[in-house]
Amino acid sequence: MRRKKKNDGPALSGVEGFSLIEMLVSLGIVMILSGMVLAYNQSSIQKTVLFTEQAKVIGVLNRAKAFALERYKGNSTSYCAFGVKFGPSTAYSILGVRTPSSGSCITGSVLSSSDTIESYALDRRVSFKSLPPQGAIFFEAPYLSAVNSGTIVLELVNVSPVIQSSIEVTSGGSISSL
Fold first, then answer.
1. How confident is the model at residue 96 (pLDDT cuts 50, 70, 90)?
2. Is residue 33 domain-resident?
3. Closest CA to 175 of 44, 68, 45
4. How far apart, in Å, do the first and last CA atoms of the chain sit?
5. For residue 149, what is the enclosing H or E element?
């Protein structure tokens, strides 16, 4: 009769494990899935930046509209319309159009008779793709009708495929994202 030593463990002849090939295949599948998740996550971050900037531009357009509604007076200057001027590149600002001594509020030289009230800039990863005529939209008090209504298209810079978002301002002054 053979005695078992204290240090002898269980017999391994009936226990099976994974082979080296099976481990490498499993590791490869995990790495491929991880790469796909990372790529998707990067795309989501870029879209979040774009849609955040879109929301900021819509907020600035609504702020200009609110100024026109309340007939904002800054530095004792009377304004008859407010708008947002876009450009160059990533800059945009709220403008107030000074009330003319006679004639219509919005004329061809509206940009020369306006004051910058607030200035903004897009995130460096976003730029303006297309702008409305004259690169500005104005809301004329008291009816808030939009002058130079149109579509503003924002685009992510140096991204393939191209990712864009749009903001539409109608002649009635409605602002919506597309």
1. confident
2. yes
3. 68
4. 87
5. none
